[in-house]
Amino acid sequence: MSEPLYRLTLGDARAAIRDRSLRSEDYVRALLERIAATDANVQAWAHLDAEHALAQARAADAKREAQLRPGPIDGVPIGVKDIVATAGEPTQMGSPIYAGANAIYDAECVLRLKRAGGLVMGKTVTTEFAFMQPGKTRNPWNAAHTPGGSSSGSAAAVALGQVPAAIGTQTNGSIIRPAAYCGVVGFKPSLDALPFGGVKLFSPSLDTLGVFARNVDDCAVLASALAGDKAIAATIAGLDRLPRLGLLADFPWVATSSEQRAAIDAAVDTLRASGAIIMAISLPERCREAHLVHRRIMLREGADQLGELQQRERARMSTKLNSALDEGRGIDATAYAGALSRRLEIIAVLSEWMAPFDAIMTPPAPAAAPGDLRQTGDAACCTLWSLAGFPAVTLPVALAPNGLPLGLQISAPQGRDERLLAIARWCEKKLPFEGLV
Fold it and tell me: Which of 248, 285, 252 is CA-nearest to residue 268?
């Protein structure tokens, strides 16, 4: 192959391994060399055992030589967020409380990844318990800027070509925002479309497993492998007509920067010129406090999930996490039940509001990644879809004047993941973006 192996997309690597023009061991070795060359300033990995990764690759090659039936991502290494239990490897939750703690079992998504022939390259950095306290990872475009959170390592590793794809999670903005900040594609499927068993819970009503890759097709391939039973097709169907899209330029609870707005305006102009029907819309009045509803649910459930641990280990938790859990503990049962009821109302209103459109376009973040490593950026542009459990994809579409990526978020009603992926791929083809690899 003429190009460096780290430039291969998941689809290209899968095809080359399948037709035996590439051995999995050689591919993993090339990615390990890429990590050695690029990770010093970015630090995307919480745990990386080169020999273990190579051993998995050699086993995949041996299986192929024995002509055993290959899986859909046979021999391809994937990054796994470090709140996902992975047998024989540390699962440290981004917290000193679990430093060096080895999981004794695989999360369901890891089991499915392995059944599909995929390899666990290593564990990618997460923020503390997938909340707001940053980990060590830096933005791969500029190490003085945040990569976003909480799936920071997954987004950064994919952006640098250290792996072709990675697994992440989202409670508020933990897939879409780091994908946008790092200039890759992030796909948050519908709530419960991918299995969460064996992943550290923060908010059972909101936590969602998702994926990162460098194109939409690869997101579909990995999501399909994790979904099982063909809940999400690995091959994206073509559109039978040009898309009809709603444009929600702003959320009422957060201001969008001029650079982010300009990037979306330019993308809209290109998509309209390509035949898409795009209509500017406003958020329904009954959804204008969705961010408050989301916060009540998230923090109350976070306090329920981590309360006992906090009682024992408060001194080893960050100030940010302790404050959030304390706030959650103060949300009484009546307020929590009311928030759950309002969530159902918002889902119903959104479903009706979105009905005339194939998908809704919004900013994925208010601006490019902040130059502040003490924070992970603002997740407010992701809150509505996380609260509703609706699928969302973010595409990199432009660079801000400071050279950092800007994205476009596309969302659809719950359960319409395949249609959303088809629309996102159509948009992606009209909006070419040059990433880091």
Answer: 248
